[in-house]
Amino acid sequence: MSQATIRDKAAIVGIGQTPFSRSLARSEYDMALEAILAACADAGISPRDVDGTVRYDMETTDEENLLAALGNPCLRYFVSSAWGGGGSASVIVLAAAAIAAGMASTVLVYRSRARGKESAYGKGAHLGGRYWERLDTALPGLNSWHVPHGLVGAFQEMAMIAMRHRIEYGTTDDHYAEVAVTFRAHAARNPHAVMRTPMTIADHHASRMISDPLRLLDCCIETDGAVALLVTSSERARDLRQRPAYVLAGAMGGGGHHIRLSTLYERTRRDDGAPRAARQLWAMAGAGPEDVDVAFFYDFFTPLVIMALEDYGFAQPGEGGPFVERGGLAWPDGRLVCNTNGGQLSEAFIHGFNNTAEAVRQIRGTSTAQVGGCEIAFVAGGNTDPTGAVLLRR
Amino acid sequence: MTVRDAIRTRGLPLPLPMRDNEPFHDAARHGELVFQRCAACATFRHYPRPICPACLSRDHTWERSTGRGTVWTWTVVRGPTLPAFEAKLPYNVVDVLMDEGVHFVSEVLDCPPGEIRAGMPVEAVFVPASAEITLVKFRRVRA
After folding, report:
1. Which of B49, B77, B109, B137 is the mutation pick for testing A, counting most A CBs within 10 A?
2. Which listed CATH number (3.40.47.10, 3.40.1080.20, 3.40.50.920, 3.20.20.480) goes with A10-119+220-393?
3. Residue of A nearest to B104 (CA)
4. How far apart are CA B55 and CA B105, in angstroms?
5. How far is CA A177 from CA A24, A78, A182, A202, B109, in A?
6. Of B72, B77, B91, the CB nearest to A164
7. Which residue of A has its CA nearest to B81?
8. Which among A103, A244, B10, B60 could bridge A11 via Cys, Cβ 3.0 to 4.6 Å?
């Protein structure tokens, strides 16, 4: 008897998204619903037939919001993935698990973010805008160990993690620039991308330092927008309107989190979340990094892409920098074509979910930087969080 | 004034002591840096937590640190940051590997941005920030 897994049990059959922009002047609720209706229309499935939902835990459009807007569909499975961008692929794992277990048949997965600089609309930590600009002045939790010293946001925490990688391996500004320039070139082909002006390595190096070693052009953009995907069983997927993107394998890995710097370095990197997810993922798929045709890394900051290449076994530890040199990640003929939408660095920052949508387009054969004969796409969540990854196949 | 301006945190964010970490803050107020140490296997840990990750014992003591360590990793924050920190831009933040083997995030007070280096020896100093909270900062140890 074969071991029970989610392998090949589910497929992504609908993609929906809003326009992506620096400012849409709309609520996260409104954008979520536009993306959801679009995903359902793309799949040819009525929103009233949705019986499962998976959201990020910090998503402001919750199940009750959905029931109230969609006419009370019969929800029988609703979960959320923890750890923000770390869960951007885990949400697909949770949807596939529900389908494999018979807990739901039509699962909606979505993320809506009003994070453009002028999109703040409330006092809650995740109600639009930059979360770190509205921190409490009395900090009860893990933030109490570093925010009082002026380490206020993810970009500064990532800077310290990236700096350690440079200390250990000599990763360089040129390596960072390769990632930024490559993904910008991909975005230039994508009409939905927010940042489409070509970038050179010199442009990258001339951008201002935000928090050493991160320059402005090492950082993802902050945008407004939403993405929704519809997941159903592989059997049903074959009869629907779009070519299915089958979930070949998916895994989650518990590990360190970027705001917990004091415990991040307690463990070896091999025992952190992404390497743990990687080992399970490749085992479930019966495949390895060499089988991947296109990869989507959680590109919130350029050095974290370099580290993720190592975490998932595409490069040996310390060799992620050399791996990206000379167009290593570039469409159409890099060593490993990555983030063909422009990623979060240049398309939009929808907490990684825009990368997952693009992975589905690669499997369908409809990307604006289409990899020829694309059979297997890899998608990973943020690798400095408890995280997850999926493999989609044609 | 924009909505964004209205919601930005203006005051200096400080720790709110909780049951698991109150002894740390009490000691800092008296000019001591203390870490939890397992009473069963003698492993130090930080941040404070109820059990030892090495042996799962719930028994621990609070022990005074040597206050010394070396810079493990660092950044220089050049902005954006919160209004409370804007006046001192650019400033460093460091992760210090302490003699006890634990990591501690803080700032090296007397070090210009261009002089921070991994491996730099540092020692703790105490900076009162309110009646209740004293922040543990660092200064360079010169040979």
Report:
1. B77
2. 3.40.47.10
3. A262
4. 25
5. 29, 40, 8, 8, 32
6. B72
7. A152
8. A244
Structure tokens at A293: 């045709």
With CB atoms and an 8 Å threshold, state whether A152 touches B81. yes
> pLDDT truncated to tens, each residue of chain A (394 aa)?
457 899 999 999 999 999 999 999 899 999 999 999 999 999 999 999 999 999 999 999 999 999 999 999 999 999 999 899 999 999 999 999 999 999 999 999 999 999 887 777 777 777 777 888 888 899 988 899 999 999 999 999 999 999 999 999 999 999 999 999 999 999 999 999 999 999 999 999 999 999 999 999 999 999 999 999 999 999 999 999 999 999 999 999 998 888 777 788 888 888 899 999 999 999 999 999 999 999 999 999 999 999 999 999 999 999 999 999 999 999 999 999 999 999 999 999 999 999 999 999 999 999 999 999 999 999 999 998 899 999 999 9
Residue with tokens 């990020």: A56
B-chain residues near A265 (CB < 8 A): 72, 95, 97, 103
ipTM entry:
0.96
Q: How far apart are CA A17 and CA A22, in angstroms?
A: 15
The pair of structure tokens assigned to A155 is: 């970009």
Residue A274's alpha-carbon distances to A6, A352, A388, B91, in angstroms, are: 19, 15, 7, 31
Domain that holds residue B124: 18-140
Query: Would B6 be classed as within a structural domain?
Result: no
Q: Is residue B12 part of a domain?
A: no
How many domains does one find in chain B?
A: 1
